[in-house]
Amino acid sequence: MPFNLIMDPRWVIVVGLASIVYGILSPVVVSRKLLFLAGTLPHSALLSALLAIITLNLLGCPFEICSIAFSLALVSLVSLLLSKGVKSDEATAIFVSISVSFTVIALYYILTAFPMETSVWAYIIGDPLLVTWEDVYFMVAVSIIIFFFIVPFLREHILIGVDRDFVKLSGIKVSLYDAMMVASLAIATVGLLRAVGFVVEHVMVLLPGITASSLAKSGRNAVLLGLLLSLAGGMIGLILSVATGLAPSGVIGIVMLVFYVISLMRR
Amino acid sequence: MVPPAIEVSDLAISYGDEVIFSRESFKLKGYGLTVVIGPNGAGKTTLFKGLLGLIPVRGRVLINGIDVTGKAEEAGKLVGYVPQFKAEDYSFPINVKEIVESAIALRRKPPRIGFPREVRARIREVMKMMGIWDIRSKPLLELSGGQRQRVFIARSLVWDPPVLIMDEPLTAVDPIGRADLVKMIKELAENKLVLVSSHDPSFFLDKTENLMVVNKRIVALGSPKEVLKEDLLSKVYGRSVFLVEKCVHVVDGYAI
Questions:
Q1: Do B52 and A166 touch (CB under 8 A)?
Q2: Cross-chain CB nearest to A218 (options B94, B105, B112)
Q3: How far apart are CA A119 and CA A122, in angstroms?
């Protein structure tokens, strides 16, 4: 087994950014009870990335813009289902069915139509070790957008999840914050997909918040702990993966799971 | 200071095809306690949410002469709301101080970080008055039913609204905590217009200005003497109403 700890700064930057973004989003997802939506988003992110590869090859549309546009459109579909009164479980089932079916079609089309030009593996299993500086710049831009949408309004987002009626009565435009939250999730999941991968994205968006909320005694501590756990999980996972030669996103996922199991034992 | 008032005309509330209230009109004026009673599912919470603009309504709701129909942000400027507690809403670990502070924080302009000294003093004053200062760092789910209600009442009092609406504040509160809460609510009604829903009106009877009986419509509104009549209540509660000597009790399975 190779044992090598030489780090490219790009690896540290993308894993750090992904950890921070998910560390911020995850506690908010938990407080707002959006676990079902967050669970569907990696599916839409993968489909969006695949559709963006197709439009890039066929129409020359920039991948970054197209992938975010597709992701926002797909998430809007879930929001539309929910606004029409479809239950969250049913909306999730319908959305996952649609996105998985189209993902297989898109994947098959890409592998047969442009086999030499495109590698889709990074989007599925995630590989922060293969990112280019262009990828890094894109992820920095995505992270800045998420910071802008979420960080100044953390209190509002958390309180909407706890007592939506009270927040409305306090004069806050709750629907605007809903849109900000859903857009942030859509942008983050597709923007960071290459670093984290479709499979582990489920873990990154859910586990830091779940673990933190089971340990913390206040909303403020839950947010800080979620961020800390996500960052620690990302960095420890990256170091272990480089040291052992194992897939980084998989190791990060296992570290997050270990944190969660430890939190279970502390309850 | 003008006494608080709630004026409702032709209020209609529906959930899909189900009509809960149809063209209801009433007026409550001045300080004092109005107790809203009715069987489970009668529409007490729906009525409160309709008054607060939290659900779509037809008709007109005026609070202190201001039209707040369907406008929660406007109703929220005049009314403190104490909702029914649902444990699942508070699965995220938010503590007592954060909940009380939120009443002030959300009314400020963004970024809503930190408070001026006088605001911090007001928050501390209300929390001490409600007896929750010593438990300020505890998550809501670790509190007793009575302590939780004190937290919600403190949240609604911290900015001193003229009207208070409390949705079943005595539910899941132990007998000692219930007695304390009842006393507190009666005191609040001395200088606020307080609407409180309850499964048993007897807790508040000595201080009740008005009693409203609800059962998917407003069946009666008047003084306890006018409303607490066996024949009237029997139409709403059926066999759950019984007379004990000269005192009317309602025992509908949710009272205790």
A1: no
A2: B94
A3: 7
Query: What would the pLDDT profile of A238-254 be if each residue is shown by its tens digit?
Result: 999 989 989 888 899 99
Q: How many domains does chain B have?
A: 1
**Is B85 inside any structural domain?**
yes
Kindly report the number of other CB atoms within 10 A of residue B2's CB atom.
Answer: 8
On whether residue B144 sits in a domain, the answer given is yes
Chain A residues with beta carbon closer than 8 angstroms to that of B103: 170
| In a domain? residue B185 | no
Domains of chain A: which residue ranges? 9-261
Q: What is the DSSP letter of A61?
A: -
Phi/psi of residue A111, nearest 5 degrees: -65, -30
Q: Which two structure tokens, joined as six digits, stand for A70?
A: 């597709």
* B95 lies in some domain: yes
Asked if A162 and B89 come within 8 Å (Cβ–Cβ), the reply is yes
Question: For A188-213, how does the pLDDT look when each residue is reduced to its tens digit (9 = 90+)?
Answer: 999 988 888 887 888 899 999 999 99
Residues of chain B with pLDDT under 70: 1, 239, 241-256
The CATH code that applies to domain A9-261 is 1.10.3470.10
Question: Which one of A156, A169, A219 has the shortest CB-CB distance to B92?
Answer: A219
* Position B210, amino acid: N
Nearby residues of B37 by Cβ (< 8 Å), 6 or more positions away: B44, B197, B198, B199, B200, B201, B211, B212, B213, B214, B250
- Give the pLDDT confidence of A147-200 residue by residue, as tens digits: 988 999 999 999 999 999 999 999 999 989 988 998 999 999 999 888 888 878
What tokens does A10 get? 């790009």
Q: Which domain holds residue B135?
A: 79-160
Q: What does the pLDDT look like over A108-141, one tens digit per residue?
A: 999 898 876 567 888 888 878 888 899 899 999 9
CB A177 within 8 A of CB A153: yes
Cα A99–Cα A105–Cα A108 angle in degrees, nearest 5: 135
